[in-house]
Amino acid sequence: MNGRYLSKLLTVAVICALVAVSIGGVASGAKKKTISLVIATATTGGTYYPIGVGMASLWSIRLAKKHGIMVQAITSAGSGENVNMLKGNEVDLAILQGLFGKMSWNGIGIYKGKPNKELRTITMLWPNVEHFVIYKDKVKTGTATDIKGLRFSIGRAGSGTERSGLTIMEGLGMKREDVKGEYLGYFESAKAMKDKRIEGANLVAGPPVAAVTDVFATPGMKAVILEFTDEQLEEINKKTAYPGFRYVIPANMYPGQDKPVRTIAQPNFLGVRMDVDKDVIKLLTKTLFENPDYLKAVHKMGGFITLDNALSGLPAPLHAGSYEYYKERGFEIPKNLIPPEAR
Q1: Could you list the residue range(s) of the whole structural domain that residue 171 is in?
Q2: Regions in the chain scoring below 70 on pLDDT
Q3: What tens digit of pLDDT does each residue of 212-221 get?
């Protein structure tokens, strides 16, 4: 693994230390080989990071003592970097937007002509909800096209946020140059809005998004989340690879947000390299679904991680280990999700 990513492992040092204490002596006493895995998340202001750290801690706590499996979560720029790290064998697992999974597996969009046929999936996670947040006094129509001409944070360069934002803009007939683009992480964007350095930001994640809460909770800050019409959603899905669906953010999700917001979302999923051991991935899958309350306590979006939702919208075949687990649970696996190596 590159040195730049090793430093990121500190993000879960405390969790790993606690796990190490709870399993003290395993390596020397049980003669069990330690299997160390890394899961890539995103920046700290969204939902990927807390859920990713939650999954890593769950797996380590439940599986280290008996199976020697330890999982660490690292921050990243998001889906774009995560795809590259999976392909480069720099991480074993990653949380990804459905858009990136669809483009990468099929070799379309930014991966045109370069399909990644070693990408595998474990489960659908939760909806990745679009939050186009702008100052209230910049609202014209109340819909996503109001970002045109604004000083707007598209997302950190190379991130899933940036790519999904640009894809949505393309579907709405806009180009990158139609906004005065800034390329900031989530809390950087929130701070820039509070400092009046930008007029809006793309903060896509499962609600409640910490950075959006930060903006809305700031005294004197008047901001809104822009909506998407049915026609806009249809155009985005028709013209781009974006796998969008309607999502309504309930009233009072954020401070002062007293009305529901009709936005859109795409699925997030847990991706993995094909070459990770089948039995290990089967154990990770099993552990996720046998501990349903664990991730709910980490973040509200953890409640979406259920067997009922597991296969919904997955953009690439299952990993052989997950496939075996679902088969044993009696699932009928759609043909497109059956691993090529299992056919």
Answers
A1: 129-266
A2: 1-32
A3: 999 999 999 9
